[in-house]
Each structure stands twice: as structure tokens, then as C-alpha cells.
Design goal:
The chain is an alpha+beta fold. It has one domain: Pnp Oxidase, Chain A (Roll), CATH 2.30.110. About 20% of the residues lie in helices and about 35% in strands. The strands form two sheets. Strands 1, 2, 5, 6, 7, 8 and 9 form a seven-stranded antiparallel β-sheet that branches. The chain is globular. The chain starts with a helix and ends in a 9-residue tail after the last helix. The relative contact order is 0.20. The C terminus is likely disordered.
């Protein structure tokens, strides 16, 4: 097959998805007494600096048959954690929200927590945005998500040209395509479905 740039362009509609065009939807948790900033999803959407679209694997089962193994599909496996890098604002609103959430799951002082899963977990979403108009073109929803690791914020006297950021690892049960939200909010101007 001869090399033809026009054929290549024809097979890459829209010019390809861009890794810097994404939106994260952080949702309030019904079990938390104090609502902080998670209900303001537009702000959280701006402050998540980096994340990823989820991975999945279907395990393999080797079934012996007359001296050979026939490979059959097994069960779907998920990564079990989703990572986000969050830019810290000066009121620490998102960090306080995550700290309060983790404290409700398991308290520092009393070593107990509220273990009712539906009260302390929520669905979080990430969307790929179109580079032409900012519309959501693909979405993924993490079901029963909760913060499992909250990273440290490094402080240093010689870091005067930087903004603080931190990692948050989210545990979840499974993920699914969030196509309903993608079509419901096609113009990309709203962060809630």
C-alpha cells in the first residue's frame, strides 16, 4: 500500500482526541454531614490537573483439550484504583472535603467510622472532550468510589514559582461507560447530568 497522507487523515476523524481536553465530575456524598465544594462540580472540574481513562482486562482461562490448551475468556478485572492530581486552592476546599470524607469512613481519633457503603461512596466520572467545541465525546463512570489514599503536599522554601498539587487515589467497585451523560450534555457547558 503506498504512503498517502490524505488516506491517513481520512482515517483519523476530528484530528484525534487530545489528552489535555478532559473533565472530571466529583460528586457530593450523601453520608457527609457538611457539604463543602463537591456540589460545585464546575470548580472541581477545573482543579483536577491530571487523571486517566480507565483500563480493564478480561482474564484468560486455559482449558486443556487433547494435548492443547484452548484459551477461553474469563472474568473482567478492573484496576481497583483511579488516580487524580488535584491543584490546591488557597482555601483548601477540595482537600478538606476529601479529608472529611476519609474521616467519616474511618476516624483518626476514635478508630471507627460509618461503614454504610451507599452513604460513603459515590459515582465519579471522567469525560474526554472534543477539541472543536468542548463537547463530551466519551465518558466513564466509577461506581461506588471513595478516596483510599490522599497524597502529601510538599512544602519547600525555594518553591516560589509553583502551585501546590496533590494526588488522590480513588477505590471503586467497577467502571462503566457513561454514554448517557455524554449525550445528555452534548454542548460541554455543564458538568452535571
Amino acid at each position: 500500500m503506498p504512503i498517502n497522507i490524505a488516506d491517513f487523515q481520512a482515517n483519523l476523524p476530528g484530528g484525534g482526541a487530545r489528552p489535555n481536553l478532559f473533565e472530571v465530575d466529583l460528586r457530593d456524598v450523601s453520608g457527609l454531614e457538611k457539604k463543602t465544594v463537591a456540589g460545585d462540580n464546575t470548580r472541581g472540574s477545573f482543579l483536577v490537573k491530571a487523571t486517566s481513562l480507565p483500563a480493564t482486562t478480561i482474564s484468560r482461562i486455559a482449558v486443556p483439550y487433547r494435548g492443547r490448551n484452548v484459551i477461553m475468556p474469563g472474568v473482567r478485572e478492573f484496576e481497583e484504583t483511579w488516580s487524580t492530581t488535584i491543584i490546591n486552592d488557597t482555601d483548601f476546599a477540595h482537600r478538606k472535603w476529601i479529608e472529611n470524607w476519609m474521616n467519616a469512613i474511618h476516624s483518626h481519633e476514635t478508630n471507627v467510622g460509618e461503614f454504610k457503603l451507599d452513604a460513603l461512596s459515590t459515582d465519579l466520572s471522567v469525560y474526554q472532550l472534543d477539541h472543536k467545541d468542548g463537547a463530551r465525546i466519551r465518558g466513564y463512570k466509577f461506581i461506588n468510589a471513595w478516596p483510599s489514599e490522599l497524597g502529601a503536599i510538599d512544602l519547600a522554601a525555594d518553591s516560589n514559582d509553583a502551585v501546590q498539587e496533590y494526588e488522590c487515589q480513588w477505590a471503586y467497585s467497577y467502571w462503566m461507560n457513561d454514554d448517557q451523560s455524554v449525550t445528555a450534555v452534548g454542548d460541554g457547558t455543564n458538568t452535571v447530568d
